[in-house]
Each structure stands twice: as C-alpha cells, then as structure tokens.
Amino acid sequence: MAGILAWFWNERFWLPHNVTWADLKNTEEATFPQAEDLYLACPLAFCIFMIRLVFERFIARPCAMGVKIQANGPQKAQPNAILEKVFTAITKHPDEKRLEGLSKQLDWDVRTIQRWFRQRRNQEKPSTLARFCESMWRFTFYLYIFTYGVRFLKKTPWLWNTKECWYNYPYQPLTVDIHYYYILELSFYLSLLFSQFTDIRRKDFLIMFLHHVATISLITFSYVNNMARVGTLVMCLHDAADVLIEAAKMANYAKYQILCNLLFAMFAILFISSRLGVYPIWILNTTLFESWEIVGPYPSWWVFNLLLILLQLLHSFWSYLIVKTACRAISKGKVGKWNPLHVSKDDHSDIESSSDEDDSPKHKHHSSTTNGTNKNHGTNGYLTGAPYPDEH
Q1: Domain range for residue 331?
Q2: Based on the domain organization, do 234 and 335 belong to the same domain?
Q3: Which of 99, 136, 279, 344 has the fewest CB atoms within 10 Å of its CB?
Q4: 357 is a domain residue
Q5: Where does the pLDDT of residue 205 fall: very low under 50, low under 70, confident under 90, or very high at 90 and above?
Q6: Do residues 162 and 233 lie in contact, with contact meaning Cβ atoms separated by under 8 Å?
C-alpha cells in the first residue's frame, strides 16, 4: 500500500519541476491545500443531505402547496401478481406478442394490459411535488453558493487579472474563503451522488452518476495541486446558469408557463454566452496560455487542461441541443405555447420531458387516464436526458 501511495502521489506528476510536497506543507506563515482537507467533505455531505430532507419537508413542500401543486402522484395500477412479475423480472415495455399472451392468460383485453403497464411505469417516476421540492432545494443552494462566490471573488485580484492565478504558483496560500468554497461545493456534489441511491431511480441514473463523479474529480484535482484560484473561477461561472434552470423547472412544475419560458430563455442565453464565450476566452485562455507562459507545463497540467477542453466540447454539444430546441419551436409557430423543459436540454444537467409512455396510435383515446403522460403536452415532466454541465 505504501508503494501504491508513493506511486499515486508522485511529485513529478502533480507538481511543477523542482517543487516537492514538503515545500507545500503548512507553516506558521502560510497554509496550503492538503489532500487530507478533503476528508471533511464526507461528513459534511451527510449533513447537507439531512438538511435537504428537512428543507424539502418543512420549506419546499409548503411552498409547493402554496402554488397549488398536488401531493398525490400518478394513478396506481391495480395489484396483479402475474403482471407485476413480468414488469419486474422480464420487461416494462411488453411487445404485441407478449401482450396477446397475457391477454389470454388473464382474460383481459390488450388495451387494459397496456394501460396497466403504463400506470405501473408512472408509479416509478417522482411526483410533480417531489420534483418541485428537489428543484427548490437545488435552486436555493445554487443561489447561495453563486452569491457567495461572486462576493468572494470580486475582492480577489485573479478575478480581474487571470494571470494572478499563476504568479508564484504553486506557493499560493490557502485562504479561509477558498477552503470554505471548495469544501462546500465538493460536499454538495457528494450529497447528490449519495442521494441518487435513495431517491426514485430515474432514466438518467448512470449518466448523472458519471457526471457527479467527474465533477467531484475535477474539484478534488484542482484543490490537491493548488490550482484553486482558477478553480474558483470555473465553479462560479458554472453555478450562474444552474440558478436559472432550477428556477425554470420550478415554474414549469407550478404551471407558470410564461415565467417558465422567460426563465428558460434567460438560461439559454446565459448558458451559451458563458460556456461558448466566457469559458474559452477567460478560463481556457488562462489555463492553456497564461499558465504555460508563467509556470510551464508538467504532467498534471496536461491532465487538467485536457479535462477542461473535454468540458468545452460538452458545452458545445449542449448548446447545440438548446439552439435546436428553440429553432424547432419557432419553426412550428408555437412559441407562445412552447414548454422548453418538455423537449429540450435542462441539468446540471437534464432533459425535461413528459412521460414517454403513450398508447399506440389506435388507442390514443385512452391517454386521458394517464394523468398527463402525452409526450408533447402537460407539465408533469421527467428528467430523462444527459445532465447539463455542473462540472467545476
């Protein structure tokens, strides 16, 4: 184990030439980031998760009731042992052949069985109330952490001159503000990682899991090799759009459609301008060129910049999805009735869409029994797509 740790913490990978871990040990004069500092994030993540439960129960839930969001979920399917076994052990989307077999076995008509499977699938989706509470929690946290980041960064020299991120690197003392900012962000994303296993399982479970792992890795990586100054810029830049998209979700769940459209439009403008404009011009410019000029490259420098470049590629892809959605809505002449969170990229990650289960065309007259599960209408959206970037 000692050999593995020595290999992993190889100074020639993590640090610039002629710099050792001993040079970055804490002294009475200065404090530097230490890998063991990050252990604090684990118990704090648990505390944040517990705070979330209290917040959703005593703050978000009453707010949801105040905007007329009902507590009841989708209509439940009647108990049936045979169909339940097929649903849990074989398939949630039976084909025509299996439907006909079940129809003969149960003496039910095919449409009734289709409706049962649709209702049973909807039972596994979070209710609108649960989604509103979750979005309100995230909105509250993102608003707080973004406000904190702006107030902290406006007093720092590297916000106004990014070369300050590299002067005297890596001998840049760790301030209380940076330490708090990093630990809180890391704890929050750890709590999101944990909560995936306790929340209702969603279609994008694996994608969101990988997204949270990537975010946690980037935060940890930049802290360990003391790229914390530029890391604070990246975190603050990404948190800005998160605030608006969670607010748009809340408006969507509350059926405030005009407000939802307005917030989503603001989110789209901010997302595209910050991720395709500010990020490459401000962040990538300093991590690639200014740091090369002042510090020079070394192994972990290449890895860090590779991750940031990959993030830029994701920014471009997600921006394309947002623009594509907007163009589709405008071309159909339905801007006034457009609900972008039903058809487009949304989180931080997410794509918000209604339930994806409809009867076949010949049975469309039964769709009214599904509590708003038509693919193109209704406000009971479900997070189904790739997460939109929260990576820091």
Answers
A1: 30-65+128-343
A2: yes
A3: 99
A4: no
A5: confident
A6: yes
